[in-house]
Design goal:
A hairpin with a 2-residue loop joins strand 2 and strand 3. This protein has one domain: 2-Layer Sandwich (Alpha-Beta Plaits), CATH 3.30.70.240. The chain has 101 residues and is an alpha+beta fold. The protein is extended and about 60 Å long. It has a four-stranded antiparallel β-sheet.
Length: 101
């Protein structure tokens, strides 16, 4: 199973920013991996670990903002479709001016 955590936290004051960083670092320290900005995911082996992880999130939630958790099976998670736009970079990636010695 996977636990997907979505959060929308205020970042207007220095205190809000500090709380945002604290929560984000807490997620990373506890095995969550960033899927995209403010969306983190963690694999859990069984319902016991799932329940303890959700309780941990509830206990360490920020004072303000919204934190949501969604539990999906591995089969459901594997059906994730990644839709991306075009990727542009300034790095020249061609061998047009390559000199072979």
């Amino acid at each position: 199973m996977r636990i997907i955590v979505f959060f929308d936290l205020p970042t207007t004051t220095d205190k809000d920013k500090r709380e945002y960083r604290r929560f984000r670092k807490l997620l990373i320290k506890n095995g969550f991996v960033m899927m995209q900005e403010s969306v983190y995911v963690k694999m859990v082996l069984n319902q016991t670990v799932q329940k303890s992880t959700l309780e941990f999130l509830k206990k360490n939630k920020p004072l303000d903002g919204l934190v949501q958790a969604l539990v999906v099976t591995e089969k459901q998670f594997s059906n994730t479709v990644n839709i991306v736009g075009t990727f542009e970079t300034d790095v020249v990636d061609s061998d047009e001016r390559l000199i072979v010695l």
